[in-house]
Protein: Threonine synthase
Organism: Pullulanibacillus pueri
Amino acid sequence: MQCQLVCSKCSKVLPLNTLRGQCDCGGVLLAEYDFERIGQAFTKESLKQRPTTLWRYFDVLPVEDKKSVISLGEGWTPLIRLAALEKRWPLQELWIKREEQNPTGSFKARGFSVAVSLLNEHGIHKVAVPSNGNASAALAAYAGRAHMEAYVFVPKDCPSPIIKECLHYGATVYKVDGLIHDAGSIIQEGQKEQGWFNVGTLKEPGRVEGKKTMGYEVVEQLGFEFPDVIVYPTGAGSGVIGMWKAFHEMKQLGWIDGDLPRFVSVQEENCEPLVTAIEQKKDSVTFEGNEAITSAPTGMRVPQPAAGNLLLSILKETNGTAIAVSKNEIKTAQRELGCQGISSSPEGAATFAALQHLFDRREIKPTDRVVLFNTSHAMKYMESLAHTVPQIRNYREVYATLS
Ligand SMILES: *Cc1c(COP(=O)(O)O)cnc(C)c1O
Ligand SMILES: [Zn+2]
């Protein structure tokens, strides 16, 4: 649907066809729609007839012609109760949003379905992305489907199943000796010469809009009620920004009222810029230096989130917080979710690990309704996980020692 871009910091307005994600002032450019007009046809009731993908929310996405849409069936993922785990604290309602069920096995599919559709509509054919892994796989898949050339740049410790996945979708893969922002610098430097459109986080408006649909879905799936707390594994933060935006939009549409859920951003120890900023009561996020970063190559490993200020303001506005969890806590949480039948990535497991911290700090109440985001599959990380899984046993040998 028609929209324009508005700076979240200085309120400057730019046309959508600039395809920009950030303003000259450094603020984030967010798509803004005419809700009064849209709200006439885009009603809660109308959703019943719509597709079970994120494109059910077409009216509030920045693509104008349905023919431009590049879809692999993303979105409308299950939101299920973790009843057995609620008993531990106890917690009244614990839900998990199964984002690993998206195409390419992660919620990055949402952002790239919308971004690639938007770029497709605007005649872009050559795209590049710096990524910890899942963004590159998602770009590769959607670019493939849109007949675009894709170039992806990942740190050299990116899990190899993800690298193979990118090749499988036909992308060109470059390994980078450094972190995600080093990959970003390479694209920045080469983009004029190579003709790449940079689809990195907040380089264009589509990815945030795609991630926003998680917010619409959670509210719709809970019967048009807000949860009390959203626990989200945060890297560059486009999901937090997107859901926060969705909740405000749904209020503007008159679909829901009341307080927004509290956002809890979860990061891994040793790459926790948001946690540090909150502890030190800062309103901007500062860089810690690459050497200090020993956290695993996951989507949370983003030492320099480009929209740090906006993220902090969202955590503050919603009375939320940021929590760092250790590698061991993540491993334990991953097995606990595994034993509930959930294939959870380290990032998804980190949100479960964060719950104990929230209880210890009394930042969560037993009566809260909490939603965790399982943003990707365990499968992609199995190789690095192998030693945390109990030994595989040979039945004949075990049987022989028993008898
Ligand atoms: C990218 C990613 C994240 C972080 O998401 P942001 O919205 O960029 O903060 C979390 N989990 C997984 C699996 C990811 O791929
Ligand atoms: Zn601005």
In short: The chain has a mean pLDDT of 94. Residues 106, 108, 134-135, 201, 233-239, 299-300, 345, 347, 375-376 surround pyridoxal-5'-phosphate (ligand 1) (CB under 6 Å). DSSP finds 14 helices and 13 strands in the chain. The CA atoms of residues 178 and 370 lie 36 Å apart.
